[in-house]
Design goal:
The structure holds three protein chains of three kinds. Chain A is mainly α. Chain A is 61% helix and 4% strand. Chain A contains 23 helices and five strands. The chains are: A mainly alpha, B alpha+beta, C alpha+beta. Chains in contact: A-B, A-C. Chains A and C meet through α3, α10, α11 and α14 of A and β1, β5 and β6 of C.
């Protein structure tokens, strides 16, 4: 009787065994994107598979996960479980997610399909192909999960349209477009390593633990279901870096440069998550600063210690990112407070209880620098003069975030950080040394940026007035503005009121 | 040129060249130490607009609601144009004051340092 | 064996229990941290489980790759075959 093949052997036959050397066309024509970035691969056979899932195992486990996830979603819908949310203001975290994150999942799906085609090593092809399907799964399951909330609350009706146009969504969009328009090795360093390995916990943990703490069991279930895929993605990210660095010493400076660039870009993007984590959650499990300490300072520290043997160093400007952990959530919140009339979600000034939590979590900065603005704004609201910024902000040419960041590293946290570069006679403004360095390295790329504020002024966004632009974004009037007084708040009160009215009827029936 | 391309030159399109703004130019204006206004603001302005129109019409629309704004004595304001100290001539145009496309103007109001002096 | 941290995070569910218990049993120096809905298993240098122990705990023949169903996150380099699963950091 034939001996059963072990996992390694089965995997080898179903992956390496399916590859071949092309003879009808030159190999470098079949795999035309592999060389131009300057990366040198001498021997693909040295690729160590991060996971060994054959296709049959992949389908089996993914089908099982989907079955369980959709059962929970059905149950959630049947039981109107959105009524168990701590408060409807929590839903704004989901609005930010479906608008700003789900389209990235779809873009990742497209790009990993590209990589599965463009990388010539079979092991890498298989891993990228599975990731492409995973990412499509994530986009789909997020849409399905959040579609339940779309039935009851505003702002979630047209996320993909918004993603391509809206001023704050150009932040995630430009991050991913930057990687998508790069070659396959830069893409995989950016997304698989910098984002999916180094920083993934700073995206997922805030949203998923935020969901758990606020009664959103549908999102929690989605989150756990997706995370089991993410662990495969993380190991792919780590493996690609090790592989590239082991293949040729010339790869080290290129890879280090990409890690420096994409760490900073991803970190800037995560500023939106920091705001959500500290300001959007009625019940807050953890502050941005705490999460940064655990998931970056400690975790990344250990990782780069490990990778040090290849000559790799911690990403450039990481100390600034760590110093900014005390500030960015407040600064980004402040920016959205200014412009919430032009957003497709609600927010509001933090309650006294929330401000006390912020004081406790940010003992060095909140009371000194940020509580005063909350007091001022609260006073203005009380006087019927709620402050809205009636202009449009200066955006950073690279990260495309409004330039609200300040000179933390120079110990001047109330001084906006301005950087500028001249390229072919035109000025380009950036928010930080990190973004300026990125611009200066590849100015040809960043002059192409579609900056929403400038596009509005060029007349390319539906019209000159804000309502025209919001219309072009497919916003509805109920989508933005303060939570207090919003359509969502009114719906929530009505929902809770109706539930309360039901209760006495039931107890009468019990008594009968 | 560090950006890599597969075929020939990397295609660069200057998406914010001045000719795209229908006769206007982009000007950024930020009020130092007033971070509750979060950023400098961007404005599409005619190059021939008198500088004084900034203090009289443009800035009040955005910065007006701040409690410090009505207290500003414009003669005591300190200005920076593209990183250099400068004294604007209010009657002259932006262009003649040296304010070009995508210039950054910063102004400081000594003694007025944000809400309760906190920089907000 | 290094002193660098490695960890596995599982959903805290019945399906994950045999894996969680196996990590606890086979890695005496590991610590378990229970958070809402999940368990974080942390070790220094290495964490590993065997198919034999997981199956015994589950009361049936377990395929170690079933851990994909309940795994949330991990940190470390993976080394696996049919009879073992291990993460290490040197």
């Amino acid at each position: 009787m034939a001996k059963k093949l072990n996992m390694r052997k089965r995997y080898e036959l179903l992956t390496r065994g399916l590859g071949w050397e092309p003879t009808y066309q030159p190999k470098d024509k079949v795999f035309a994107q592999e060389a131009y970035e300057g990366i040198k691969i001498t021997d693909w056979s040295k690729w160590e598979d991060p996971f060994r899932l054959t296709v049959d195992a992949y389908w089996k486990y993914q089908a099982e996960k989907d079955k369980k996830l959709y059962a929970v979603m059905d149950s959630f819908a049947q039981n109107n479980a959105h009524l168990n949310l701590a408060d409807a203001s929590y839903v704004n975290a989901l609005k930010l997610f479906i608008q700003g994150v789900s389209p990235l999942e779809y873009a990742a799906h497209r790009n990993f399909a590209r990589l599965a085609r463009q990388l010539s090593g079979e092991g890498a092809q298989i891993a990228c192909q599975m990731q492409s399907i995973d990412e499509l799964r994530h986009a789909q399951t997020q849409i399905h999960t959040i579609s339940h909330y779309n039935k009851h609350f505003h702002g979630m009706h047209d996320p993909f349209h918004m993603f391509d146009r809206v001023w704050y969504l150009s932040v995630p969009k430009s991050y991913f477009d930057d990687a998508s328009s790069a070659g396959p090795f830069e893409f995989i360093t950016s997304v698989s390593f910098s984002f999916e390995y180094l920083l993934t916990n700073l995206l997922f943990v805030p949203f998923m633990s935020g969901a758990a703490y606020n009664g959103d069991m549908a999102t929690v279930t989605f989150g756990f279901s997706a995370q089991s895929d993410e662990s495969r993605h993380m190991t792919l990210g780590l493996e690609i870096i090790k592989f590239l660095l082991e293949q040729h010493e010339d790869n080290l400076p290129i890879v280090q440069g990409w890690i420096d660039k994409h760490f900073w870009r991803a970190y800037r993007l995560l500023g939106l998550v920091a705001m959500m984590q500290d300001y959007f959650l009625p019940e807050s499990p953890m502050s941005w600063k705490e999460g940064w300490q655990i998931y970056f300072v400690e975790n990344a520290g250990a990782l780069f210690n490990d990778l040090g043997r290849y000559g790799l160093q911690m990403p450039k400007y990481h100390e600034i990112a760590t110093a900014e952990a005390d500030h960015i959530s407040h600064q980004i919140f402040g920016t959205f407070y200014n412009y919430i009339h032009a957003a497709a979600f609600n927010l509001g000034l933090p309650s006294e209880a929330k401000m006390n939590w912020l004081s406790e979590k940010y003992p060095d900065t909140f009371d000194k620098y940020y509580r005063p603005r909350m007091e001022m704004w609260a006073q203005m609201e009380k006087e019927g003069k709620r402050f809205f910024n009636m202009g449009l902000p200066q955006l950073c040419q690279v990260c495309q975030i409004p330039m609200c960041f300040t000179e933390i590293a120079k110990d001047d946290p109330m001084q906006v950080s301005y950087r500028v570069s001249e390229y072919e006679g035109e000025k380009f403004h950036t928010c930080s040394d990190g973004c300026k360095t990125i611009f200066d390295h590849e100015p040809e790329k960043y002059v192409n940026a579609w900056l929403p504020v400038h596009q509005i002024f060029q007349g390319n966004c539906g019209g000159a007035a804000v309502p025209d632009v919001l219309n072009w974004y497919h916003f509805h009037p109920e989508d933005g503005g303060d939570y207090v007084g919003s359509a969502d708040e009114a719906r929530w009160k009505a929902m809770k009121g109706e539930a309360a009215a039901e209760a006495p009827k039931t107890s009468q029936a019990d008594a009968a | 040129m560090a950006v890599k391309s597969i075929h020939g030159e990397y295609p660069s399109v200057f998406m914010d060249s001045v000719d795209r703004f229908h006769g206007n130019q982009l000007v950024y204006i930020g009020w130092d130490n007033h971070t509750s206004i979060c950023t400098a603001n961007a404005y599409p302005l005619p190059p021939d607009m008198p500088f004084g129109a900034l203090t009289e019409a443009v800035l009040p629309s955005v910065c007006g609601p701040h409690p410090d704004f009505p207290l500003i004595e414009w003669s005591k304001v300190e200005w920076l144009l593209d990183g250099e100290a400068f004294t604007p001539e209010m009657g002259k145009s932006l262009k003649d004051n040296g304010v070009g496309h995508k210039s950054l103007i910063r102004f400081k109001t000594p003694g007025l340092n944000g809400y309760k002096g906190t920089g907000n | 064996m290094s002193e660098h941290k490695v960890f596995m995070i599982f959903q805290n569910t019945a399906d994950a229990q045999p894996f969680i218990s196996a990590f606890e049993q086979e890695n005496p120096r590991a610590t378990l941290d229970y958070q809402p809905g999940m368990v974080r298993i942390e070790g220094l240098g290495e964490l590993g489980i065997t198919q034999a122990v997981v199956s015994e705990l589950a009361g049936r023949d377990v395929n170690l790759q079933e851990l994909h169903l309940t795994l949330i996150s991990l940190s470390g380099n993976i080394d696996e075959d049919d009879d073992y699963f291990r993460i290490t950091r040197h």
